[in-house]
Specification:
The chain is mainly α. The chain contains 21 helices and no strands. The chain starts with a helix and ends with a helix.
């Protein structure tokens, strides 16, 4: 929001000093009360406008969102500037321009907006790794959990032109723990599990994974599910595993969606339900998960829970043929069975999808 909106927000949310004190409220002049109400309504209007623009972006309708986002970006709205910079960097609804994106983000960064710092670091990873590292370190110095995870991964994997330094990676993850964010427990659990910068400690790893899972970290919940299925450090418990997968899928983990879909497809722990399996695979596939795309393609190929549709399966496998070797193998098998008309249709759909992707 712009400065006027922030002032209105501050005034509106003062329950103990204004709205909850009748004597104070009644002491306002009619003109002051009217001005305050106008400010509140303007704020609600601005917030709803931005929410609607963000919804358009999530639906891929970037051009329709441009007028609203550009208006608030011009007013200095930090959130709108953040979104508009990303749109310019990727060419979403506007002409692609990294320079414009960098220019837009600069005021946000000067204002201490850590998400903008992180985005700038991501944008400059390849073109200017040393600059990316410096801006990332600044965000991490402000104890932003996402920046600390990012910086930890940089040290752990030796990114941005740096050599691997597991101990520095661990220090970032410990900082996340110190500020009380559960992502710190998850990454320290990984370190103890794999001996990254610390001595391996299976007990400590399990304890931290469980703590992160209980705090709602989807990745930790998937780990706990796998451990209960495999009996790794725990008594095998398929029901507990199923429960953790359900929680992780509900939290948005596409990996959990695929694993849970397999449980429903096979009728493992739960009664077989191919419709639910298909829904889970489809949701993961829409988010670009290669496993979700593959398993959804197999359902269409085999006619499991749906009519057989080898053309649709072929198109799905094409999306991940360079990621999963089994997808390429499946495509070759399908080609041998498709008639010329079906194969031509499949290739047409693939071309149309590629064209649409370039257009975005």
């Amino acid at each position: 929001m712009n400065r006027k909106a922030f002032v209105a927000l501050a005034l509106f949310f003062l329950p103990t000093t204004l709205w909850a004190a009748p004597d104070v409220v009644t002491s306002l002049t009619p003109a002051a009360s009217a001005a305050l109400e106008v400010a509140r309504l303007e704020l609600e209007h601005e917030m709803e406008e931005m929410r609607a623009a963000v919804r358009l972006c999530r639906q891929g309708e970037f051009e329709e969102a441009v007028p609203v986002i550009s208006k608030y970006q011009a007013q200095g709205d930090i959130g709108a500037t953040f979104i508009f910079a990303k749109m310019h960097f990727d060419g979403l609804g506007v002409e692609q321009s990294a320079e414009t994106a960098f220019e837009m983000l600069s005021p946000n960064i000067e204002a201490g907006h850590t998400p903008s710092m992180i985005m700038m670091a991501v944008m400059k990873e390849e073109s200017a790794p040393s600059e990316a590292f410096q801006v990332l370190r600044r965000a991490a110095s402000l104890d932003d959990p996402t920046a600390l995870v990012y910086l930890g991964s940089v040290y752990e994997q030796g990114l941005l032109g740096l050599g691997e330094n597991a101990r520095l990676a661990v220090r970032q993850y410990e900082k996340i723990q110190e500020i009380g964010h559960p992502a710190g427990d998850f990454h320290m659990a990984r370190c103890y599990d794999q001996g990254i910068g610390v001595s391996p400690d299976a007990l400590q790893s399990s304890r931290l994974y469980m703590r992160a899972a209980l705090a709602g970290v989807p990745e930790a919940q998937v780990v706990m599910a796998r451990r209960y299925y495999e009996g790794k450090g725990l008594e095998p418990d398929p029901i507990a595993a199923f429960g953790w997968l359900t929680r992780a899928a509900q939290a948005g983990s596409t990996e959990a969606m695929v694993l849970l879909g397999q449980r429903y497809e096979m009728g493992d722990v739960i009664q077989q339900d191919l419709n639910v399996a298909g829904q889970l695979y489809s949701t993961a596939a829409k988010q670009g998960d290669a496993g979700g795309i593959y398993h959804l393609g197999m359902l269409y190929l085999n006619g499991a829970g749906t009519e057989p549709d080898p053309v649709r399966a072929y198109v799905l496998f094409d999306k991940i043929k360079n990621i999963l070797p089994q997808a390429q193998t499946a495509m070759q098998a399908i080609e041998a069975d498709l008639n010329p008309e079906q194969l031509a249709l499949a290739r047409q759909k693939i071309a149309e999808a590629a064209s649409a992707g370039q257009g975005n």
